[in-house]
Structures are given as structure tokens and as C-alpha cells.
Amino acid sequence: MLCKKQIQCGNGRNRFKKEFESLFLKISENNKNIVAILIVYRPPKCKIRYFIDELENFSDKNSDKNMIILGNINLDLLKIQGCENTKDFLNSVISQGFVSAINIPTRGEVFKGKLVQSNLDHIFIRQNKQTEIYAGVVTCKISDHYLVIAAISREHKKMIFLQSQTNGLMLFTVTC
User: 125-145 pLDDT, tens per residue?
Assistant: First the structure.
């Protein structure tokens, strides 16, 4: 992770057991917390209920007003109808005060001559009024997923977080 000198980035650490990968850090400026960030990769084999329970426990212990959860969670928000696991996950993060910021495809591939799209990469935001957090999708494929981005604006200063998935490796950059 790269971080500008004026911005303090707390030590990232894995917060969960071996079922899924994560990194948690806090960004602060002048010893004042700006945002907490949880970066997650949930492999398809990880049980949904376990993942939801761990995320709820984590959120209860980290009640930062400004928080971003981002990563490849391998739950398709484009196919929520009839998928109880995805509904349970979405209801859980919404009940914790998060809003889904990525509601368009984050992956697209041609399968048997037809474009198949999914939304497996997510950014969920919980914010106060002093901090603005934005998110988007860059539809340039550098891996089998598109690039999802989040930008934070506080007192006219911007920080940009980029996240991508390449063979299970998370790439994360902070710039100003």
C-alpha cells in the first residue's frame, strides 16, 4: 500500500480466520480518524452464514462512522432474486448502516457466444456528513474483473482507493 506522508495509515492486519482473506486499516490525518477500511476476498467455498456472522461481529466491534468494506465477496448482486444467501448478506450490511455503492457489473465474459455479467466486487459505505465517499467501476479489464474504486473527500482533500482482483491477490493503492 502506498500512502502520502501527510496521511497516516494504520497498520493493516488480517481480522479473520483462514476462511477468507482480509486487511483492515484506519486512515487518519492530524491524529483524527477519517475512515476505516476493510478489504475482503471471500472465496466461493467460504460458507455464507459464517462470513455474514464474522462481518457482523467485526462491524459491532468497529463502530467507526466512516467505514468502507470493499473487495471480491463472490456474491452476485445482479442476481438477488431467488438467492437467499445474497439477500441475507445484503440485509446484514444494510442493517449495519452500509449502502451498496456498486450496483453495476464488475465482471463480464463471453460464454457460448453470449455476454455474461455479474457484480461480485463490492464497495459498501457508511459515512457521516463531514466526509463524502464516492465509488465507481473502471470497465478496463486488467484481470477477469473490472477495477472498482472509492474516493474520499474531506475538507476538499481527496484520497483514492483502487482495488482489483488478480488470482486471489488484492492490489490496493492510496493516493492524494
Answer: 888 766 777 788 888 777 888
User: What pLDDT is stored for residue 138 in this prediction?
Assistant: 82
Q: Give dist(CA 153, CA 130) in Å, integer.
A: 9
Task: Give the dihedral of Cα atoms 43, 65, 37, 146; nearest 10 deg.
Answer: 70
CB-based contact 173:152 (threshold 8 Å) = no
d(CA 134, CA 117): 23
Nearest CA-CA partner of 137 in 96, 174, 102, 98: 102
Instruction: Count how many Cα atoms sit within 13 Å of the Cα of residue 94 in the half-sphere of its side chain.
Output: 7
Give yes or no for residue 176 having a pLDDT over 50. Answer: no
Q: How far is the C-alpha of 34 from the C-alpha of 127, rounded, in Å?
A: 10
CA distance 89 to 12: 24
When pLDDT is cut at 50, 70 and 90, the band that residue 95 belongs to is very high
CATH of domain 8-131: 3.60.10.10
How many CB atoms are closer than 10 A to CB 109?
Answer: 12
Alpha-carbon distance of 87 to 139, in angstroms, equals 26
Cell output for 25: 486499516
Domain ranges in the chain?
Answer: 8-131
Average pLDDT over residues 138-160: 74
φ, ψ for residue 169 (rounded to 5)?
Answer: -95, 130
